[in-house]
């Protein structure tokens, strides 16, 4: 049996950029039972509050796992992430997971990773776990974060910022040539994902981590479905990683 | 010794806690977290005769103390349910309710005919889903529409028949009385409240269907009132639903008159919340020296208890 | 330049934010915290012909995202209101609504006659208080009962007549249409939902009357849906009420079709919440380049906007 | 104009007994305007959370004021006080007040103060502000707190505990003789207050601080009323301190 919500103890919760926090959680309890803490692309449902407002837990991807410490990288968007950002070392936080399918780490060939904004989170862990040759393309609005760590792990790192403050000025999709890769992993805002898929169509397979509003996070409520060639699929259980050939975008 | 058993329409539940339709799938996902045999029962995802894809666009939207949903009865259809889900569910040593929706009386009746031939324990007739035209809510608003469908289904149905009421009914007590007259063996209430949300930046409704269904602890005080009013008015077993998040909520519904309760949105907060509720009820009974749930069922209004 | 003014039944409000009846007294307590002239309007505590002591026992009980109340229309009576409260309220440079309840049609009519002779700006006819027999909710459930009282009051009433609807109405759209037919110049909705709570240790209802009224952000999705449905159906100005806690909520109600909004329980969280909402609406209008509220009123359903 | 909710900055939040916390808040902002922070018997509405669950703020009495620091003494009863108990130095908390009438400090004569449990909170501040001769009777269930501070301020201190672990074993009302006082101030559980009033009837006037569930806290919603000889009176505005001759108890 999997364990449902467990308490994580906050090791650190650091602002690393405007609105972006890095959260390190110590997991003792359930790892004692030798359960897997998760692979790249998997996520946890986080609750940093006991009350019923906010009501639902928040899905956040695994950005790293080292020993018993899970790292999350999150952007403060609304009230849930706001509350989490206020937690300090020693505070506890409830979490359910690991959830979802994760990226397929066994695929062969040269990999291009494309991230937009906070979509970088699962791709950081991915870049650590892949044995393939990897080029990493990361786009930011203005401030750049976490690239120093990624740089050491990959063949080449490309940075773009919308305001041109660092790297290429513009979108990250303007930087990369799909012909150079055997597969692409991507995560970021929907318009970016769509653009990556468009650029890669008929050239190279794309695997994208999708977002959706979630309730249960475990595949039971059918609240997070997206349209795919196989019918309505659950982002939380059948995803969040989908092949671009499966996903049917509404427009 | 305490005893948490309840007998509803001849079916014995080991405890009064049932997982609510649409929040628990067919149990498979939760079975990864706890043995489903702990539950009093499970109500299946709402089923229609033919498979349904459900609604497009956003399906879940959080509100204060709850959520709006517009799933639109995505389900594999009755036949697929009977061949691929029901056997799994029946193996779990818990009572299984088939939650049945539909667009027309014929559709409902055909679904029931097929379920008659299975080992399903009970039918929960959903005349209250606000999210699809075919969800049956049209039948759940006016008593006379409900009378028509329930009495037709009753003629066919060989299983204990629970009718699930909509809180959007014009008059919940009259609706309950009508369904009982039409042949319901029991009633469950409430389904979700019709609600909505607007995205003020795109200046349009959040949901493609505009209206969605509200559930969660936000609705509890209203749901409890409805269960209280209905319990007083009719003599069949009542299953209380709406915002139950802990054993205290469950006990409130039982004291209002419910025989059993269902937990819906609470499962999203914690997949093992039903276990906490079952345990909490037991502890409460021990501490309060309550031997059986009958002792407190409807205690706030029943005379001579 | 943005313009937050709204004209409701010939009465101009400087902005669409009105303090809701029963949560704002007669304004005196809030006047210690901000100049009431900032408000679009104030609706008085519910008034009855004769003074009322209100209900006994617990009057307030918190629920998830809101509260149940059973105040029971405690008020000084119409005459005392006219001589001691109205002069103060009218001095505040804001629109004053007299919220009028009652037990019988005669009582309502007599109250209105006395208010006719004052400088009150509008009447808000409360046919929806769930907490007293004389609160008028009996009139607010079935459309035909509402027709009777509204048409009688209309004959007497010389002031713009807003009818405040109960969300417990059997059919809110039909109720709205009926009240308009009977002579309402405008509608406000919603009042509180009938709800309840049980003290599981004393095994009895929390409230002496068993049933109390639910308000707060918990009810917002349902209230918004009702305002949307009613706005589409009738042509008179609508005042939206129910769980409004910030400018975003207010804008949602306006986009659903409301001309103005009322803030009730929100005042308990912060006595100057109405100021934040007024400011928030202004900032939103500036940022979104909205010149007048008419531009967005009912924008989610109105054609040719 | 009074200021509505203001932020208080937590100076300390210390557990001083089983379930009892002492909270010290630093008030800078609005005291600059020279507003009074409150007299004994007055209270504040506290919100230690931004979300809407819990929905209502919680009334807590002033236990002390020194410079710009307000002290509250509170018992963790339910979710509101539980959340407040989790706050730490540097956290902020919203508060509205001072509210209510407070005790009348101008009455002359020998004073008996009678407290039960956490009802001691407003009476601590009262014992500091009274110029009269004071005897202080405090009853506790088991653990005794704050008596060292009170002892220095009063003529005589009497302690009772229900379990007899300190002072008189039993109820505090068994300890005192109403004939020795010109007035009595009391706060505590309702049964105790009723008992004090009964003992003092026709002997000495009693002023009691009453509790009631509150919503607005400022006198507008009529949610907190109690029955008095003057009709239904608001605990938050007309009280919380009432003369025992006014209050009409239901049973
Ligand atoms: C599988 C998955 C993995 C994710 N991993 C990360 C991560 O590693 N780091 C990170 O910062 N974020 C991640 N997200 C997004 C994150 O879940 C949302 O930002 C978060 O739930 C917002 O919560 P909130 O309370 O702060 O905002 P809310 O107040 O709930 O909403 C703020 C805004 O966020 C939008 N939003 C809310 N929920 C979602 C959602 N589930 N998906 C998309 N938009 C939403 C709303 O439209 C709203 O505009 C992930 C989402 C999914 C589905
Ligand atoms: C004027 C006034 C001054 C007060 N001063 C203090 C103080 O200095 N220190 C202190 O510890 N407490 C004080 N209280 C009581 C305090 O307000 C309640 O204990 C607190 O609101 C409980 O909140 P909660 O969220 O922890 O509990 P909840 O979860 O709201 O309730 C827990 C229990 O407390 C009871 N309760 C809730 N609210 C009230 C209320 N307003 N009055 C009485 N019972 C209630 C409920 O019946 C329930 O059993 C005061 C109350 C009033 C009215
Ligand atoms: C996501 C979701 C899906 C639901 N689907 C169904 C359904 O298929 N059939 C049904 O009868 N009720 C359905 N419901 C209603 C629940 O069974 C329950 O009646 C309602 O949510 C109120 O209970 P709660 O407050 O505990 O969630 C659904 C509710 C949710 C939240
Ligand atoms: C304590 C309290 C007292 C109320 N008294 C009245 C009243 O006297 N007359 C009336 O029409 N509505 C009364 N209401 C209803 C409010 O005016 C409003 O319609 C309702 O609370 C919903 O709005 P909200 O969610 O913003 O509070 C009262 C509400 C509360 C909470
Ligand atoms: S969130 Fe429930 S199925 Fe994905
Ligand atoms: S709490 Fe509103 S009047 Fe006292």
From TrEMBL, chains A, D:
[2Fe-2S] cluster binds at residues 216, 221, 224, 236. Binds 1 [2Fe-2S] cluster per subunit. Gene3D superfamilies: Dihydroorotate dehydrogenase, electron transfer subunit, Nucleotide-binding domain of ferredoxin-NADP reductase (FNR) module, Translation factors. InterPro entries: Cyt_c3_hydrogenase_gsu, Dihydroorotate_DH_ele_sf, Dihydroorotate_DH_Fe-S-bd, Dihydroorotate_DHASE_ETsu, FAD-bd_FR_type, FNR_nucleotide-bd, PyrK_electron_transfer, Riboflavin_synthase-like_b-brl. Residues 3-105 form the FAD-binding FR-type domain. One of its GO terms (biological process) is 'de novo' UMP biosynthetic process. Keywords: 2Fe-2S, Electron transport, FAD, Flavoprotein, Iron, Iron-sulfur, Metal-binding, Pyrimidine biosynthesis, Transport. Pathway: Pyrimidine metabolism; UMP biosynthesis via de novo pathway; orotate from (S)-dihydroorotate (NAD(+) route): step 1/1. FAD binds at residues 58-61, 80-81. GO terms for molecular function: 2 iron, 2 sulfur cluster binding; electron transfer activity; flavin adenine dinucleotide binding; metal ion binding; oxidoreductase activity. It comes from the Bacteria. Its cofactor is [2Fe-2S] cluster; FAD. The keyword Iron applies. Belongs to the PyrK family. Responsible for channeling the electrons from the oxidation of dihydroorotate from the FMN redox center in the PyrD type B subunit to the ultimate electron acceptor NAD(+). HAMAP family: DHODB_Fe_S_bind. Heterotetramer of 2 PyrK and 2 PyrD type B subunits. This is Dihydroorotate dehydrogenase B (NAD(+)), electron transfer subunit. It comes from Wansuia hejianensis.
TrEMBL record, chains B, C:
GO terms for molecular function: dihydroorotate dehydrogenase (NAD+) activity. It catalyses: (S)-dihydroorotate + A = orotate + AH2; (S)-dihydroorotate + NAD(+) = orotate + NADH + H(+). Substrate binds at residues 45, 69-73, 126, 191-192. Its main location: cytoplasm. Pathway: Pyrimidine metabolism; UMP biosynthesis via de novo pathway; orotate from (S)-dihydroorotate (NAD(+) route): step 1/1. The active site is at 129 (nucleophile). InterPro entries: Aldolase_TIM, DHO_dehydrogenase, DHOD_1B, Dihydroorotate_DH_1, Dihydroorotate_DH_1_2, Dihydroorotate_DH_cat, Dihydroorotate_DH_CS, Dihydroorotate_DH_I. Its EC number is 1.3.-.-. It is found in: Cytoplasm. Residues 5-285 form the Dihydroorotate dehydrogenase catalytic domain. Coiled coil: none annotated. One of its GO terms (biological process) is 'de novo' pyrimidine nucleobase biosynthetic process. Binds 1 FMN per subunit. GO terms for cellular component: cytoplasm. HAMAP family: DHO_dh_type1. Catalyzes the conversion of dihydroorotate to orotate with NAD(+) as electron acceptor. This is Dihydroorotate dehydrogenase. It comes from Wansuia hejianensis. The lineage of its organism: Bacteria, Bacillati, Bacillota, Clostridia, Lachnospirales.
